[in-house]
Input
Amino acid sequence: MKNFNYVVKDTLGLHARPAGLLVKEAGKFESTIMVHTKGKQANAKKLLALMSLAVKQEDEVAVTIEGADEDVAAQAMEVFFQTNL
Amino acid sequence: MEYYSGKSINNKIAIGKLFYYKKQEAKVKRERIEDVENEVKRFDEARELAKEQVLDLYEKAKSEVGEAEAAIFEVHMMMLDDEDYGDSVCNMIESQMVCAPYAIASTGENFANMFAEMEDEYMQARSADIKDISERMVSILLGNNDTGAVFDEPVILVADDLAPSETIQLDKDKLLGFVTRHGSMNSHTAILARTMNIPALIQVDIKPEWHGKEAVLDGYSALLTIEPDESALFKAREQVAQDNKKEELLKELKGKETVTKSGQKVKLYANIGNVADTAAALMNDAEGIGLFRSEFLYLESADFPTENEQFLAYKIVAENMAGKPVIIRTLDIGADKQVDYFNLKKEENPALGYRAIRICLNQTDIFRTQLRAILRASAFGNIAIMFPMIISLSEVQRAKEILAEVKSELKEQNISYKDVEVGVMIETPASVMISDELAKEVDFFSIGTNDLTQYTLAADRQNPALDDMIDIHHPAILKMIEITVKNAHDNDIWVGICGELGADLELTKFFLDLGVDELSVSSSSILPVREKIREQE
Output
């Protein structure tokens, strides 16, 4: 399993648009990708679950990646968070 | 004539007939089914068709309002594809043997409620999006072909609520504006209305009997007037004519450089008095904020505004201006403004009294709080500071000392800030006379012509009886400006004008000839001034 932490910089937080982009990106990988924050977690391939985390600016999220392609997936996810959130 | 109030989405006016639109409520019955597989298949087909329809809306929105605003329909498509949503519908069909429309409606309601109950206002507004996609699938399954509101003459649409998909489907050529009972300022419908520049009021107590009546929708005052009388109509028409003229100017001049025919450039900035004014500044294509009056923070508060309150206000403006300069003027309050908690003594001559920088240099705790807030916000944009009411060199030096102390404090605490430009307002005759010395201490001057006029001509600007007696183009004022500009340029600093004379089109040529570097005017004056400058040789 791979994991990394990230503090959200986007002023709107994980709002609909980036959440949608995240779902698209996560969908490219076989691994199970989970986003954890404030004691809750959501599957990064599920839009409504992600949005229900209500991640705001300055919130810290932990992302875990587990599966056959976890190495590439973890790298791609880190890049995604840094460029979109 | 009757008035109704609401919340306004756009500063615009619409005049016309009201059209009451009642959405066909899809009547969803809980029906028992036998063939589970077939029902799931029906759901899948409805979902595919819904996605195709939303894709069409996406294309339509993209061409009409642009990609960023059309993105909501992309999100709708993803919501339609959401696994949890789909699983919930299929589960209901399988475990409860209910028909697909019922399973969709229930699932949609559950998810919509989940969002409605979230604390975050933005997420609350997403509940309308879930409802929108759910209703779309239900309509497909029930064979409703409600084509939305259709009207054959231009109208102001009245409805309980409008889904984003309904808003984008409306015939824009015949839509003068809309009024809804529900909706929030953050809803996509509100955002679309803003982008499409349609006058709109939300949260109005609407009535079906309004259908067919004449009305004025006033986005400036957030009022809907039913059956307006002649004078109300006249006023509204005048405002519309003014707005139209402004829009034409905007179309023509937006994005154009502020430059004379021979290539002399002038920075054209906006004066703002609070955070919300930033929107008007951006709409009118301001190249920066030349005067951000910070008094509102103190006037709208029951006690001294905290560092954080101030920081947030400055930060929002700096971020919205996205790298364009934002010049914040420090506290400019005196006994003529009612701020109880300052406990200012009543004065014979408040304009000549204990005010502005004089308060700041005496009650330095107030000043330090403001400077800390401004410096912290400076990390988020391109901020500059200017001090008002300066009459002597020592004041500027003292203010700069305090600024330096605040900076080192922040540095010790590891709080980031930028090295901001520091300037002074030139608004007293004294500051004009010593402007050569002041210029060696600061990065820029901004001439405040309102106070400069009142102090130079010994004429109270609050006294209307003097209006006709005072020449606002008095040669003494023009000379003062000339001296200030020369002293600034001799010392290699830039100089601007932020008083009302800055927007005086009769003086534009005079300012250009002097070589004034910046004009900061009210937002509504930006484009007329730009037009004037572009006409000059």
User: Anything to note?
Assistant: Helices of chain A lie at 16-26, 47-51, 70-84. Residues 6 and 61 of chain A are 5 Å apart (CA to CA). Chain A touches chain B at residues 11-13, 15-17, 20, 23-24, 43, 45-49, 51-52, 54, 56 (CB under 8 Å).
